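step 4 of 6: structure.
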Amino acid sequence: DERQGFASAYDEYQKEGKCSNAWIAKSTLGFKGKDIKVSDSATKLLAFIDSLKGRWVVQKYIENPMLVDGRKFDIRTWHLVTAHDPQALQVYTFDEGVLRVSSKPYKNSDFDDDFMHITNNAIQQDHPDYGKNEQDNLIDFAQFDHVLKLHHQRKKGKGGELGKEDEKDNGPMTVRGNVLPRINEIVMETLRCIKDFLLPQPCGAYQMLGYDFVITDKGDLQLLEVNLTPGTSTTLVGKMVADMNEIAVDAAFPDP
Amino acid sequence: SLNNGFKHVGKIE
């Protein structure tokens, strides 16, 4: 059973002893930050999984996230998949995304503290410092470039990763130069994985997807999950829906 | 259009 699979993977990490061995378990039916548990105790996680109705996922918790101003964030991007040709999926990425920042400084401990570890807006908005550092705890891609620059400077200053002689300093990562291209690779990979379930599609079918990522302090992008009914931000929703309609709907009804 | 925020990134068939 998959509980056994988790227990063995947990034990492997425990033996390595490299990190504090936190994992995140969630219901596949969950939304708005509900039915999620982070813990470094296998017993607690298994009890949580047993309490869930329906299916669940358990993943290694990313313990070394890149931080902004000491706080954890995840990256939300939006993707459109269309099937004007029922035998092929066309994949699009919206060129703006958001970082969802937590309200409380990050520590690689206190895993029960959702304000520190779970960046969902529905969780964070109950914290007294919500909206204090950035409006709605959101950061746009232009500011993300600034975050990446600061991160790079900090690493360089510390003589950490970039201080090693064998590592060339290629300058800071950028959203459009590094992050989005990697995100697009991951998106294509996930869709290729399930292509046999997706094809053929009814002609004209389309779907918006919301992808969540964490970027580690080493700059590696890690996929967290894919959302079928993604929320958007109030500033982006207007353009996003108009642009989606242009590609997914208007294209199916050309001007006479 | 060129202004469309959704940029084509790939095809799966």
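step 5 of 6: annotate
 - Chain B touches chain A at residues 1, 4-13 (CB under 8 Å).
 - Chain B has a mean pLDDT of 93.
step 6 of 6: archive
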